[in-house]
Write a structure and sequence with these properties.
By secondary structure, the protein is α/β, with parallel strands linked by helices. The chain contains 7 helices and 5 strands. The protein has a 5-stranded parallel sheet with strand order 2-1-3-4-5, sandwiched between helices.
Length: about 170
């Protein structure tokens, strides 16, 4: 039974939520768990780099404004680390001024959600991000499978075009 539970849990999307507001953490857990997301919550952003390697999340939800380390700083440090830079990041914020929204995307956020959190909105945004990431992984895997070693896809297309042109020339000569 434990192995079956472990197998099921390993296939669930794991979300790490970082927010200093315990009420928001409880609300997000209550919203996300019924949608079969695994949720880890963290109220102390200073422990972020202790928790991330253990939790191994598939997606981060970060609050913009937190004491000591804000969400913008966390996002920037995630994007600078090769082993974690691929993680989708959604920001939570009660602020809506255009300069903040621009800054959030400029440092590498994938999306943002306004507080108070609306259940269907955050579920849709998470689902869309995870589906997009899955498509990107499948495309990358397909490119690796199709492209011969040492030949870029664009080079392969050029070679195929040249071979077709040669084939047509040979047919015209015959």
């Amino acid at each position: 039974i434990e192995r079956s539970i472990d197998r099921v849990e390993s296939t669930l999307t794991h979300i790490l939520v970082v927010d200093d507001d315990l009420k928001i953490l409880a609300i997000l857990r209550a919203l996300l768990v019924p949608w079969v997301f695994r949720v880890t919550t963290l109220s102390d952003p200073q422990k972020f780099w202790e928790v991330v390697p253990v939790a191994k999340p598939d997606l981060l939800i970060l609050d913009v404004e937190m004491p000591t380390i804000n969400g913008l700083e966390l996002c920037q440090s995630v994007r600078e680390r090769v082993d974690w830079s691929h993680l989708p990041i959604i920001f939570l914020t009660a602020r809506t001024e255009p300069s903040l929204i621009q800054q959030v995307f400029a440092i590498g956020a994938d999306d943002f959600v306004n507080k108070p959190v609306i259940g269907p909105e955050i579920i849709a945004r998470i689902t869309n991000l995870m589906e997009r990431q899955q498509v990107q992984k499948l495309r990358a895997a397909e490119r690796q499978r199709v492209a011969p070693a040492g030949i870029e896809l664009s080079d392969r297309d050029k070679i195929q075009s040249a071979l077709i042109a040669i084939e047509h020339s040979l047919q015209e000569e015959n």
